[in-house]
Q: What sequence folds into this?
């Protein structure tokens, strides 16, 4: 009986990493600064030249249930053998970020898929986060017709002769981000799925995730 290579263990590691290293967004660099509380002056004391201080209107206030963000049919197609219910990754603040992941090893063919919803305090905060992410993930391109703007990138990595191809789609819609990651490896051939397969799969999942966000409002 063949033993699985150590590379498989590395592909399962993101669950632990995500749960421990990146979820405290309320105190991280992308967190919105705390609003300074101000008492409104009585109508008779307001200066006619004073600017309006109305709270910013947020289009999206809550994330949908992330494990319902991608249809069961798509999960089955992209991650053969995975439980379609998915696994939600714990977050320190679910009002800021919620994520669900699916992964499975069928024979020696491995797939990982996750979707993350991030609700920001304002459109400006979401735009800043979007620009930072897309700058860090250079080499991709725009995806038309998804949210206010969307970006897709695919990268190939090789570790101990084992290839892994990973696609990421980042979508911004007003004050929300939808981020999909999809990757795969074949532990028998040591090859990775084609760029087109990974890219199309990630974009399909992102479109469904965006539709779920809109439907949840």
A:
């Amino acid at each position: 009986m063949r033993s699985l290579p150590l590379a498989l263990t590395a592909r399962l590691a993101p669950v632990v990493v995500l749960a421990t290293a990146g979820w405290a967004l309320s105190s991280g660099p992308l967190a919105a600064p705390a609003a300074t509380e101000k008492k409104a002056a009585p109508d008779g004391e307001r200066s006619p030249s004073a600017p309006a201080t109305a709270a910013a209107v947020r289009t999206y206030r809550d994330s949908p249930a992330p494990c319902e963000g991608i249809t069961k049919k798509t999960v089955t197609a992209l991650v053969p053998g995975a439980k379609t219910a998915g696994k939600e990754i714990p977050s320190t603040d679910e009002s800021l970020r919620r994520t669900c992941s699916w992964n499975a090893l069928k024979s020696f063919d491995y797939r990982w898929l996750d979707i993350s919803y991030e609700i920001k305090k304002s459109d400006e905060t979401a735009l800043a986060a979007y620009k930072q992410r897309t700058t860090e993930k250079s080499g991709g391109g725009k995806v038309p017709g998804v949210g206010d703007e969307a970006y897709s990138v695919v990268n190939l990595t090789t570790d101990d002769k084992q290839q892994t191809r990973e696609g990421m789609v980042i979508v911004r819609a007003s004050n929300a981000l939808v981020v999909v990651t999809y990757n795969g490896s074949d532990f028998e051939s040591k090859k990775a799925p084609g760029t087109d397969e990974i890219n199309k799969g990630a974009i399909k999942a992102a479109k469904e995730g965006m539709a779920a966000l809109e439907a949840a409002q």
